[in-house]
Amino acid sequence: MAGKKAKSEVEKTSEKASELISLAEVTEWCQTGCTVLDLAIANLFPGGIPIGRIITFFGGNSTCKSVLAALILGYAIRSGRIAHYADVEHTLDERFAKLFGYEPNKSILSYPNTLEEMFDDWIAGAIYKDQKKGTYDTKPKVMVADTVAALPAQVELEKKMSDSQARAPRAKQLSLGFRKYIKALSESNTTLVFMDQTRTDMNSPWGGETVSGGKSPLFYPSVRVHLKSDGKVVNKADKVIGIWTKFIVKKNKVGPPFREGRFKVLFDHALDDIGSNIYFLSEAQNGPKEAKKKTTKIEIFGEEHAFGYWVQKVEDENLEEDLRQAVWEKWQEVYQTEKRKKRTYV
């Protein structure tokens, strides 16, 4: 009898727990405008960033954080999602944003002054909850804050710069904000994208980079992507017309971590997804050193030609989608694992 009673209690507890717990499986993705980055995060085609999760892109200056912010919001708007942009640095230029697909007049633009305003006004205001039903509006929303490193805590604003400051106020408030809203973000189908600026890690004897705000920016996001400057793009006159950015997925709860890649941004053209995809295929076939040479032959669609030929052919014949499919096929080949029997638990 004792055994049956214990089993009955376990079943009751389990049923009660199942009512409280809702495992939010990712079923929707928002593209970033960079095919290789989308695949690195989702490990699916077409991939992208997961809807309903917290994502962080962090890096030094001139690593295309604001470019990605504009691209992500642009894709969100074109796919029918609600877009929110927090211009923390007050540096948004409409002409620049439109170049990368973002249209401010088709989104909700905010200017929070503190971390508290960002969480309790900007985020809380975007997450609508029906008080009678107790449920959230689940229409997909994409929120981008650029950049979180520029936001002070309220206590910092209330004091003069000459006054002694409270110890780590930003870290405490940032951690509290994540804890307060992480469940609501998931249940309301809201994606929160943080752009974060890195700084020199003074606690490390070897230098290196870290982000401000303590440890919470490392714990709460489902995906963390590190961006690094990786060279300049020059034209025939040896003038700089763009930059290369290298990325590595440092943390990933929706796919395999430590996927990496490289993408090209042209100042007057936006993110060059065609060029970035051709570079990926060239690197996979010829190695990183040869891939950087424009004269290196690349085999695509059963033909072998140099870099410039393929860029022109893809644009002239509208083969962008075919090229992206070719990248996905090569991606699976590059990241294939050894064949093993799947582990079963009995």
Keywords:
2 domains; alpha/beta; two-stranded antiparallel ribbon; Rossmann fold; 346 residues; 16 strands
Description:
There is one protein chain. The chain has 346 residues and is of the alpha/beta class. The chain folds into 2 domains: 26-159 and 166-268, Rossmann fold, CATH 3.40.50.300; 273-338. The chain is 37% helix and 24% strand. The chain has helices at 2-20, 35-42, 65-78, 94-99, 115-126, 154-157, 169-187, 216-219, 273-286, 288-291, 307-316, 320-334, and strands at 29-30, 49-50, 54-59, 82-87, 108-110, 129-130, 135-136, 141-146, 190-200, 209-211, 223-234, 240-252, 260-266, 270-272, 298-300, 303-305. Strands 3, 4, 5, 8, 9, 10, 11, 12, 13 and 14 form a 10-stranded mixed sheet that branches. α5 (115-126) runs parallel beside α7 (169-187), α9 packs across α11 (307-316) and α9 (273-286) runs parallel beside α12 (320-334). The longest helix is centred in the N-terminal third of the chain and has 19 residues, at 2-20. The chain is globular, with a radius of gyration of 23 Å.
